[in-house]
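Subject: sequence -> structure tokens, single chain

Hey, anyone have a minute? Need the predicted structure for the following. Not urgent.
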Amino acid sequence: MSVTIIEKTYLRRIASDAPTVGQLAYRGQADSAWRLRSSATRRLILDMGEKPDTDIERTVPFSKLFMSYHRTVLIDGARKYGFDHGDKREDSDLKLLCRLQHLGAATGLIDFTLDSLVALWIATAMPEGRDCPGRVYVINLNDTNNFERMPLSEKHHGLNNIFPLEAGPTVRQYYYEPQFKQEASSRVLRQRSVFLVGHPLGEEVPDERIALEIEIPSNEKANIRKELEVLFGISEQTLFPDIYGFANAHSQKSAMSRLDDPEYFLNKGNDLYQRRKFQRSIRAYSESLDLEANRSKTYYLRGNAKAQIEDYASAISDYDKASEFLESSMIGETREERAIPNMAMIAFNRGNVNCALEQYELALRDYDRALQSATQGLRGTVLYNRGNANARMLNFVDAIYDYQQAIEANIRYARFNKGNALVVLGRFQEALKCYTEEQSVFHFSHADNNISNVCAIVRHLGNRKTIVKLIDPEESKIKPIPYFVVQELQGTEGLTADRDQANDAVHEGGTTYLLTGNAGNIGNFGGGDTKGGEGYHGQKGFAVRVAI
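Reply:
Had a minute. Here:
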């Protein structure tokens, strides 16, 4: 008897390379380039506007979107239409998902089979007519370090038990062998199905859990299919029963229908935000607000996304709405201030945006509001940014006070920025101490420049009295650089001089020292599983001129 292609290229490989002890399960994929993912993950990726095989990190926001999709789109939707009754009683979440999966819906269950030839048939398809190699994955379900059978009791078959939000290499993966007596029974029995439950967090099927991979050459697919049908009776007709309208409507490539769940769009917005798809996240947050307009959290998060694309005016409007709805929620028994965001976070982020708009007076007002309710752990951050706003307003004494409070909270760059404020006031020895401490504590290399220049200024001045005068940058000869003047005027006592005399001295000559400007603001607070915003840019360098 001649050796078949199936035996030569496939069965012999399994016999020689697959584990010899254990219950093996197989999954066929028609394109070897496809990632080993559940159809739910692929559908959500498409819904976010990405390509099917985009390398997507399974983050906490994505896991919540994954859960919202299963709860709202599939389980609630199927129950609404009465598709959840089998054996004359209501199906568990798990059994309902199994039925939907087998009828074509995109779920987080990953089809495997106990029959190696069924997996081979699936791997020999030509997806969308494309000529490409297929792949068969083999796992060992008896590998108890990696896999665990789903408990039979239906009390363990709720959505949160099916997809536990746990991650890491030590978390075992559930598998489930469904047993139906009604509509999907013929398919389940014929395909000898077993479902691997995809992880909401981390890789759905980590590489180390795959015992064997077999590539099926594209030029052998047609002949293998003929052998499967003639020799083993395996064909599309025998493997796949009727497809029901609801399941087909929720296949992997089906567009999402309109949902009435604001939480779904909120989770979608969070996941897109984390992937830095800010325009898309804004659209998702807006869809959530269309369904539930009085959500402080959603306005706050949309404001953060708008701040990221520098749509500052619109971001402030969202922060105002977030503040308004948060205040109204505090009236009565339900107090939302325990949740994210709270008033301090909203005011802080709005202050940052006002700083970006150079509306420093408004920013100071926002930071003051943030301090009214900020926790002890947040106060240092707020005070640091308020110090920057005060410095921009030339309120250097107030800025020094803010920076000192931030230093006590061990906020990075607070010492450095305080040193700059002290320089402008002519307090050079104190400034040197601040720069040196910043360099020592946080290894801030830019402090080197200011240390060097301030030491040179101190040597230049010696013991002479100085006049400290702030000169408008428009009047300076180094126009791109904000220009502070430290100068000595002959015959002048004390530390004051009129502006004309100071200006004349500047233009008569002297030595200019260029210092590094303030480090920028700490970025927006996040929330709702998002990280917030990056820090805002600091000031350009400034010049200290000793006119002697």
